[in-house]
Amino acid sequence: MLPASPAIEAAGVSRTFGRRRAVDDVTLSVPAGDCLALFGPNGAGKTTLLRLIAGLLAPSTGTVRVGGRPLRDDADARAQVGLISHQSMLYRALTARENVEFAARLYGVADPRAAAVRALDDMRVLDRADTPVRALSRGLQQRVSIARAIVHAPGVVLLDEPYTGLDAAGGAALTGMLQSLRAARAALLLVTHNVDEGLAVASHAAVMLAGRIVRMADCATLEARTFREEYRALVVNGDGLPTGAPLGLSA
Amino acid sequence: MTGRRTPGVVAAAWLIARKDLAIEFRTRTAFLSALVFAVLALCIFYFTWDQSVVPPADRAPGVLWVVLAFSGLLGLQRSFGVEEHDRGIDALLVSPIGREAIYVGKAIGNLVFLFAIQLVAIPALAIFYNLPFGRPLLAVGGIVLLATIGIVAVGTLFSAMAVNTRLAELLLPMLSLPFFVPILMTAAQATTLVFAGRPPAEAWPSLKILIAFDIVFLVACTLAFPYTLEE
Amino acid sequence: MTTIPVSNGTSNSGSSGRSNGTPAPAAPRAVFDWFSAVAALGVVGIYIRAIYFTPIERLQGAAQKIYYLHVPAALAAYIAISITALMSIVYLWLHDERADRLAEAGAEVGLVFLTVVLTSGPLWGHRIWGAWWAWWDMRLTLTLFLWFIVAAYLIVRGGVEEAAMRGRYSAVLAILAALLIPFIHLSVYLFQARLHPMPVVLKPGEPSLPPEMLTTFLLAFAAFALLCIAFIRARYRVGLLRDLAAELAA
């Protein structure tokens, strides 16, 4: 079942909006069981890159593959992916359980009810399962959204700032979830601007600035404090920026 | 990992339609407002003609089609707004189901929504305009069925387009109404013939246009739908 | 129902400009546009000929001279709209922004000529039929609905910010509209065939025109076709300059 090719693979991916290059010639690969944390300031192109890998955007040039297959026209490849994005992707009028169960059915999970209960329990929101999403707090909505994204036990999980709005318990539940996903040989791509959150689960770290990946490191050989300082230097001082790239960065 | 089977087009479309109808059933706001609008409009139109000049039964077909078109627009507007709010559409797009299944599912949901309005609006028309219940009303039901398929076919596509524009809801009537023209013209004509007690054969040319419209635009809009999504 | 936040699917879209992969277009040089000048002179010449050197029609009198505006304008509108439909197909196929810009130009110029048709028609009708508007006149009715569709097309263009999406939306709409027109034609035909016998009126462009009139007509067709192409060329340049300006601003 496990493909020989890396779970997530982007080769020379660029995406322009008008003249602006949001993502500029990015190449990366994440093998099964690894977690790449992608750091970068606002507007660095992290979200665009994630949406390109998720197949929600088409690259201007380059290719994206998941499990060795192009995502956009391959239903089986898409079935491997779980996405957690900025927006909750939930329907407010439906309950948490209905939302997660609907997602499970979209992926053809064998027992959608049980899978939904399990996912909600993993994210510690089972007690609010029958509350309409509209009535849940932002943090609880985020937990339901994460449950929705992993209900089909994806082999590839793409996460865009998943810790936003989560309290300590929610953050711990998410970290635990990500670790168990990794243990189950899922590949994770975690987009965040918070270095500590990212390094807590990552096996590799990358820094994105102005659409490019400017630094790539293996967490095994990386010391958190040094990396944090290096990241600050890159982002705040603008060291190592490709020449001529637009600035406008915020820490 | 075991026991996963991606639903086919029909199954996926049905999932989406059922989800949309569940949302609608929960909130009921769009349905109730469309329904009240339809019945209210029927009543208001009654007073826009002098009944000593034009008998109510004569204007019933025209009134019916104007009311069904506009209340239908109210229903169609909500269709993709639900997806846009928290980008539920993204979850559908990254899932393994095909894009045409999204369109078909949305269309089925809209079809049920519009039928539910018509189920109240047509008897209300019969009551307020003193039309005979029974056989003619059944024939009108058949015409309504054909016309609603066409309305939903184009309306669902334009609803998907409208939510991605700056104009949002404003755009839907402007885009849809020109496409409703052949539907409304032929359906109103067929309805007039039915109410006038003419033989069904006379309405056949109108029905043929309706059927052709349904087929052409169901196919064309299903093919066009993927182009309306963000890329 | 809540208001929908518009097109924020990508956190960082919004700059309009070129779609992907097309080479940067060269800015058109500001030169005197001979083409437009010739077309404009041609139209002026046609009206001098039509007013002073073409005989007055026996039955309709001077009102018949409206034909020299009405019919060529309709021809120009059809040319412009055909370009839009054709370029929309090309755009969906090749994703070439030049096709999109040409489609836009065709629609806008088409709307202008359709407006001319729709204003000159009733002026003539009022004089000859005694009615401003005649729903049973297939061509006029069809032109009216065409006007609405083209107007909707241009409104859609104005409502979408991202260039590639605007191109796709408008192309889809134009192609669907091309499918719609036969249906409108059929339903209008059915409507008028049931309720009215075909009216016995003089039809524009009947074959038995006197030679002077025919010559004026043919020259008018040529002048309007030229004017239409000149307008589209000019409008295309405006679109090109606008896109360039947007790119420089980005």
Fold topology:
The complex is a heterotrimer of chains A (251), B (231) and C (250).
Chain A: E1 8-17, E2 20-30, E3 35-39, H1 46-54, E4 61-66, E5 69-70, H2 75-78, E6 81-84, H3 96-106, H4 112-122, H5 138-150, E7 156-160, H6 168-183, E8 187-192, H7 195-201, E9 204-209, E10 212-218, H8 224-236
Parallel strand pairs in A: 3-8, 3-9, 6-7, 7-8
Antiparallel strand pairs in A: 1-2, 1-4, 4-5, 9-10
Chain B: H1 9-27, H2 29-46, H3 56-85, H4 88-94, H5 99-128, H6 135-162, H7 171-195, H8 204-224
Helix pairs in contact in B: 1-5, 2-3, 2-5, 3-5, 3-6, 3-7, 5-6, 6-7, 6-8, 7-8
Chain C: H1 34-52, H2 67-94, H3 97-128, H4 138-159, H5 163-195, H6 211-249
Helix pairs in contact in C: 1-6, 2-3, 2-5, 2-6, 3-4, 3-6, 4-5
What's this, in brief?
Chain A has 251 residues and is α/β, with parallel strands linked by helices. Chain A contains 8 helices and 10 strands.
- Name the helix and strand elements of chain B from N-terminus to C-terminus, one letter apiece: HHHHHHHH
Q: Spell the H/E element sequence of chain C.
A: HHHHHH
Pick out the low-confidence regions of chain B.
none
Classification by helices and strands of chain C: mainly alpha
Low-pLDDT residue spans of chain C = 1-22, 197-202
What is the terminal-to-terminal distance of chain B? 30 Å
How much strand content do the residues of chain B show?
A: under 5%
Bulk shape of chain C: flat
